[in-house]
Amino acid sequence: MTLEVDVLEVLEKDARMPVDEIAKMVGVTAEEVENLIRRLEEEGVIQKYKTIIDWEKVGREYVYALIEISINLTEDEGYDGVAKRIAEYPEVRSVRLVSGTYDLLVVVREKTLKDVAYFVADKIATIRGVRQTVTHFSLKMYKEEGEILYQRDEGGRLAVSL
């Protein structure tokens, strides 16, 4: 199991790392790493390889919203049912069952604020069991999927404006 975890941790940091480099890092042959990765893909342990893109650098802007959702539980549908219906929408980036004052935290990506508003009003709020929503808009992202999205000023501090 340790070899699996070691390889998975390397892939999580850099999915494009060549197999021979991974093999050197974990102390086995490239063929063993290839076979392990193939098996982990087949078993569904490795779900997908994904690229993190800074869309602003290519002139495309998106609006990200974090939506807190409170749910009225019913006999025939619990958290999972509502969460799975929400997860089916292509606008939805993530859905999490959370502890605290609300039940689900949903991250949505749309082209405009108006698109987010329509999504919440026309799709989320109309789902049976949804009691209340609170929407927060992301103003700036500093880190995504474990990756820092800004240029580091070595030895310096992040600028603060008041």
UniProtKB/TrEMBL annotation:
<dbReference type="GO" id="GO:0043565">
    <property type="term" value="F:sequence-specific DNA binding"/>
</dbReference>
<dbReference type="InterPro" id="IPR011008">
    <property type="entry name" value="Dimeric_a/b-barrel"/>
</dbReference>
<dbReference type="Pfam" id="PF01037">
    <property type="entry name" value="AsnC_trans_reg"/>
</dbReference>
<dbReference type="InterPro" id="IPR000485">
    <property type="entry name" value="AsnC-type_HTH_dom"/>
</dbReference>
<keyword id="KW-0804">Transcription</keyword>
<feature type="domain" description="HTH asnC-type">
    <location>
        <begin position="1"/>
        <end position="61"/>
    </location>
</feature>
<dbReference type="InterPro" id="IPR019887">
    <property type="entry name" value="Tscrpt_reg_AsnC/Lrp_C"/>
</dbReference>
<protein>
    <submittedName>
        <fullName>AsnC family transcriptional regulator</fullName>
    </submittedName>
</protein>
<dbReference type="InterPro" id="IPR050684">
    <property type="entry name" value="HTH-Siroheme_Decarb"/>
</dbReference>
<dbReference type="InterPro" id="IPR036388">
    <property type="entry name" value="WH-like_DNA-bd_sf"/>
</dbReference>
<dbReference type="InterPro" id="IPR036390">
    <property type="entry name" value="WH_DNA-bd_sf"/>
</dbReference>
<dbReference type="InterPro" id="IPR019888">
    <property type="entry name" value="Tscrpt_reg_AsnC-like"/>
</dbReference>
<keyword id="KW-0238">DNA-binding</keyword>
<dbReference type="Pfam" id="PF13412">
    <property type="entry name" value="HTH_24"/>
</dbReference>
<keyword id="KW-0805">Transcription regulation</keyword>
